[in-house]
Write a structure and sequence with these properties.
alpha+beta
Length: 118
């Protein structure tokens, strides 16, 4: 197809845009499967959220040592395990070798995580 035909929609220029380039599966090694091996050594930040609250800056500035900040979560509710700010699981606090730990009781499905990103 000539350059003129590619640029002229009346001469089938749109068809040139539909010509396949190198397929994604061949670019990924020809298998069509995605390998996560490159991501396995990437560090992420895990955090456990026990609750949240909102307050005006005036209240925030008046906080002093010993002030109790009430959170919007019941004491028996599971805690949220966040990975880079995204909810991944919920769990309960446990002790492990003299440190706090989190026993997972509910893992958020990948499809639920993707819905929340949209």
């Amino acid at each position: 197809m000539s350059d003129e035909e590619r640029q002229d929609p009346a001469a089938g220029g749109d068809a040139a845009a539909l010509e396949p380039l190198e397929s994604e599966s061949s670019a990924a090694g020809g298998s069509g499967e995605v390998s996560l091996d490159l991501l396995l050594d990437v560090n992420v930040t895990l955090s456990v959220e026990i609750g949240r609250t909102r307050m005006p800056i005036k209240e925030l500035l008046s906080l002093t040592q010993g002030t109790v900040v009430e959170l919007q979560r019941d004491i028996n509710d599971p805690l949220d395990l966040m990975v880079n700010g995204t909810l991944i699981a919920r769990g309960e606090v446990v002790e492990s070798n003299g440190r706090f730990g989190l026993r997972l009781i509910d893992v958020v499905s990948p499809s639920e995580r993707l819905k929340k990103l949209k």
